[in-house]
């Protein structure tokens, strides 16, 4: 069921761009499917039928397309991913943190899986751009995005903060830490991101809180899932950067206990405001259930195997996937100049189910 559900979304180009989503498909939406496929490859989830594109190949297709899109838009703000893929969609003139974080995450994890430094170079470029443009603050907080319209050229920031922006960069930084053989640079960045995540999105009792919408109960369907993704990325980080275990595991444990207390609605439905503990918040839906289930499963990470790579994994790749060329490698990123620096979800149930099944698969393995 999971394999069929994910493969149904691949589209004619085997790049998670189904034609029926062209009017609302963002770079982040496309990347979330690719990251689900990346998790499948890392966790040695059963492969699709051999005549279909494989997990790794799907990720490479999305990454190659987005790398080409970066180069196509680099005259605006010196780089960075637009939120929307197609120019006719609302939000095209917005470069948001989650789209750039997903691109960074894919590049870092592809580098760790394949050993190909070109992916790591792109990941480094995406991280540096996000930091230099101001979406990663000096306090290691992640702002929502920046505007390119009205000649703003990324000089105006949207200050809203969401947990999954920090989470996607945390997980990507962990992959870079692994790829660089535990370099001091990525260890420091990992620690700073983890500190910022803890300080902003966890209360004094170590319980996760989606601060921008939870207190006012204004979280939309997408935002109700953010804690699910953040929990998973925190757990995946622990597996790749064990030095953060003592910091992150208590946060996951305390959040899971509080989430369990919130599962006191009709039929044990789970609420979203874990900080209320056993005072049910009266709000339930797929996002709330996903968030609770994922934080529960994240506590099993110590029993999981490390993410697979090209030597230990079994997913077939195609470095030229998603390109019009038959060249076997992606193009390296252009050098960032001083001029560049100066210029510088819609999510579906199937995708999240794939993520959850991946976690269960790992814990059972």
The gyration radius over C-alpha positions equals: 19 Å
Intertermini distance:
19 Å
pLDDT averaged residue by residue: 90
The CATH architecture classification is: Alpha/alpha barrel
CATH topology: Glycosyltransferase
Give the total of domains: 1
Q: Could you say which structural class the secondary elements and strand pairing correspond to?
A: mainly alpha
Oligomerization state: single chain
CATH class: Mainly Alpha
Sheet with the most strands, sense and barrel status: 3 strands, antiparallel
> How do the helices and strands follow one another from N- to C-terminus?
HHHEHHEEHHHHHHH
Question: Approximately how much helix is present in the residues?
Answer: 40-55%
Strand content: under 5%
Please give the order of strands in the largest beta sheet: 1-2-3
Please state the overall shape, judged from the principal axes of the Cα atoms.
globular
Number of strands: 3
Count of alpha and pi helical runs: 12
Q: Mind explaining what this structure looks like?
A:
This protein has 365 residues and is mainly alpha-helical. It has one domain: Alpha/alpha barrel (Glycosyltransferase). Helix content is 49%, strand content 4%. The protein is built from twelve helices and three strands. The protein has a three-stranded antiparallel sheet with strand order 1-2-3. It is globular, with a radius of gyration of 19 Å. The chain starts with a helix and ends with a helix. 52% of the residues are buried. The model is unreliable at 325-330 and 339-351 (pLDDT under 50). Its main location: membrane. Belongs to the glycosyl hydrolase 76 family. Residues 304-335 are annotated as: Disordered. It catalyses: Random hydrolysis of (1->6)-alpha-D-mannosidic linkages in unbranched (1->6)-mannans.
């Amino acid at each position: 069921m999971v394999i069929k559900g994910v493969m149904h979304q691949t589209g004619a180009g085997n790049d998670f761009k189904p034609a029926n989503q062209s009017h609302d498909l963002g770079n982040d939406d496309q990347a979330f499917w690719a990251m689900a496929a990346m998790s499948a490859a890392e966790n040695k989830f059963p492969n699709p039928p051999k005549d279909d594109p494989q997990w790794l190949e799907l990720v490479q297709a999305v990454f190659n397309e987005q790398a080409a899109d970066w180069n196509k838009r680099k005259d605006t703000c010196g780089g960075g991913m637009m939120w929307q893929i197609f120019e006719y969609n609302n939000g095209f003139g917005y470069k948001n943190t989650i789209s750039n974080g997903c691109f960074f995450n894919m590049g870092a994890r592809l580098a760790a899986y394949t050993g190909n430094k070109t992916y790591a170079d792109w990941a480094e470029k995406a991280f540096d751009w996000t930091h230099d443009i101001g979406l990663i603050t000096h306090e290691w907080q992640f702002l929502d995005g920046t505007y390119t319209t009205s000649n703003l050229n990324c000089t105006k920031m949207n200050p809203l903060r969401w947990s999954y922006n920090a989470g996607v960069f945390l997980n990507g930084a962990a992959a870079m830490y692994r790829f660089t053989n535990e370099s001091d640079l990525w260890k420091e960045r990992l620690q700073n991101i983890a500190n910022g995540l803890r300080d902003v999105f966890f209360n004094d009792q170590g319980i996760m809180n989606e601060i921008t919408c939870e207190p006012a109960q204004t979280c939309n369907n997408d935002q109700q899932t953010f804690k699910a993704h953040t929990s998973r990325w925190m757990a995946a980080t622990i597996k790749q950067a064990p030095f953060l275990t003592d910091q992150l595991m208590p946060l996951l444990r305390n959040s899971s206990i509080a989430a369990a207390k919130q599962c006191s609605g009709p039929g044990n439905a789970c609420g979203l405001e874990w900080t209320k503990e056993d005072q049910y918040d009266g709000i339930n839906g797929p996002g709330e259930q996903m968030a609770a289930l994922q934080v529960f499963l994240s506590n099993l990470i110590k029993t999981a195997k490390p993410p697979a790579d090209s030597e230990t994994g079994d997913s077939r790749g195609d470095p030229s996937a998603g390109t019009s060329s038959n060249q076997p490698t992606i193009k390296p990123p252009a050098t960032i100049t001083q001029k560049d620096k100066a210029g510088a979800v819609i999510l579906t149930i199937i995708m999240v189910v794939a993520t959850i099944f991946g976690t269960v698969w790992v814990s059972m393995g």
